[in-house]
Amino acid sequence: MKAALLTLSTLALLSTTTFAENKPNVPAKEASQIFKATGFAKTKHGWEGNCNTGEITTYKDLNGDGLKDAVISDYSTMCYGNTGVGYHIVAQQQTGNWKVIFENMGIPTFLKTKGKDGWPDIENGGPGFCFAVYRWNGQKYDVNRYEYNGKACTLDY
C-alpha cells in the first residue's frame, strides 16, 4: 500500500512539473494584434480561426532582430489530420505591425541552424520518423532538408 501511495505521489509530482504548460505572458494589446494579423476573430470562447480556438504558444524574438515574434497554435484533426495541430508564425515589423510569415500543420521545433536574416530552421514534427525542415530564404520558409533526431532521412513513398 505504501509503495502504491509513493508511486502515485511521484507520478502526480512529475505530471505537474514535467508536463506543466509554460504559456508566455503576452500583453493583451499585443495578443489582439497578433491574433488579428493571422485572421483570428475574438469570440466569447477566445480567439477563433478557421479551425479552432488558437493560443499563443511562443512569444519572443526568434531571429535576433530585437522585435518580438509569436507562434499561434490551434488544434483540430478536422483541419490538420492525424497531427491535430497547426501553427502560424507572426513577426513584429519595425512599424509595430504584425505580419504572418509562415503557416503549416504540424508541431514546430526551432533548431539551432539558421536561414537568412537569423531566422531559425523549423523542424515540422508530427506522426512519423522523418520530418521536413524549413529554412527562411529571405522571402519565405521552404523545405531545406528532411531529418529525424538530427540525422538526415528521406521520405519513401
Q: Keywords for this structure?
A:
157 residues, alpha+beta, five-stranded antiparallel sheet, four-stranded antiparallel sheet, globular, disordered N terminus
pLDDT under 50 segments (min length 5)?
1-20
Assembly type of the chains comes to single chain
Structurally, the number of domains stands at 1
User: Roughly how much helix do the residues carry, as a percent range?
Assistant: 10-25%
User: How far apart, in Å, are the first and last alpha carbons?
Assistant: 52 Å
Order of helices and strands: HHEEEEHEEEEEEE
Number of strands: 11
Count of individual helical segments = 3
What would you call the shape? globular
State Rg. 18 Å
Describe the strand arrangement of the main beta sheet, using strand numbers. Answer: 7-8-9-10-11
Structural class: alpha+beta
State mean pLDDT (0 to 100 scale). 88
Largest sheet: 5 strands, antiparallel
The proportion of strand residues reads 35-45%
What do you see in this structure?
- The structure is a single chain.
- With 157 residues, this protein is α+β, with helices and mostly antiparallel strands.
- It has one domain (22-152).
- The protein has helices at residues 2-17, 28-37, 77-80; strands at residues 41-43, 46-48, 54-60, 69-75, 85-92, 98-105, 107-114, 120-125, 131-136, 141-148, 151-152.
- The strands form three sheets. A five-stranded antiparallel beta sheet has the order 7-8-9-10-11, with no helix packed on it. It has a four-stranded antiparallel beta sheet with strand order 3-4-5-6. Strands 1-2 form a two-stranded antiparallel ribbon.
- A hairpin with a 2-residue loop joins strand 1 and strand 2 (46-48).
- The longest helix has 16 residues, at 2-17.
- Residues 1-20 have low confidence and may be disordered.
